[in-house]
Amino acid sequence: MAEDILSQNEIDALLSALSTGEMDANQLKQEEQDRKVRVYDFKRALRFSKDQIRSLSRIHENFARLLTTYFSAQLRTYVNISVASVDQIPYEEFVRSVPKMTILNIYSVAPLEGRIVIEFNPNIAYAMMDRQLGGRGASVNKVENLTEIETTLMTSLFERAMENLQEAWSSVTDITPVLEEFEVNTQFLQLVSPNETVVVVSLNTTIGESSGMINICIPHVVLEPIIPRLSVHYWMQTKSTSISKPEEYKNLTKTIEKASMDLKVVLGESSISMEDLLHLNLNDVIMLDQPIDQPLSLHVGNQAKFRVQPGKKKSKLAVQIIEEIKGGTEDDE
């Protein structure tokens, strides 16, 4: 164990304090003998580092942005979703923290083992359903009396929303969220053992004039296979690896080379009045601004890329490229 080394000034100050009586040598000896004890609660076992919690927060900040866009489009109203907190707590503490009667969606996230829970506060869930049915987004808490139609509407909305969770997690691993159960009573929610550590991501949610929380509960058993990927080192390594992939760029180049595009050669331009245009007849001649001894422009899309000269090849009209036009259109030069 490494020991602290005092400087000469610190040693002089310590000896001075001992000689003047400002500091007691016995007191120093007693403090050295006393053990420093830190309280540790085994029921709240911290199984994720701060670095890993930050990574989970970053993932779900992206998920919150995607979810905001999705619900805004589906409900045609103001929606704002943001990450409020990311905590690791025992599973029983999560169950106690949510209302006894609420909207619980249980998802499998293959290929990861286990299941996750996404709890929608009833105020939020009913505001969504009211908007789906053409209402103003009013919130009414009547979870105990959900009809079959209301359950189907909510299930469909929440199931399609999980495509955004899949996209948010794609930077770490590929998952396929599937809604397996729809529950309203937390007493029937037996996900993991009560003392199992879970990560709870709380999202502040505002829909129209209604507000509430969306809580995402992810057990440790789900995240255990991908815990090494939740470190900053992995993110930085992935970023540097993704930059240097010559094989992928080679394949991308081959694909682009096969793409077709429109080419056109501009023979010249002219300006005439509307009256002259209306009175044009057969064999009339329109004067172009293109000199006959100057090369023509070959356009790729709407951009002039080459200077060419006209001619024939095998009884077909053709052009021969003379030089490349660099720096934009001809007018820019």
UniProtKB/TrEMBL annotation:
GO terms for molecular function: cytoskeletal motor activity. It comes from the Bacteria. It is found in: Bacterial flagellum basal body; Cell membrane. Keywords: Bacterial flagellum, Cell membrane, Cell projection, Chemotaxis, Cilium, Flagellar rotation, Flagellum, Membrane. It is a peripheral membrane protein. One of its GO terms (biological process) is positive chemotaxis. Belongs to the FliM family. This is Flagellar motor switch protein FliM. It comes from Radiobacillus deserti.
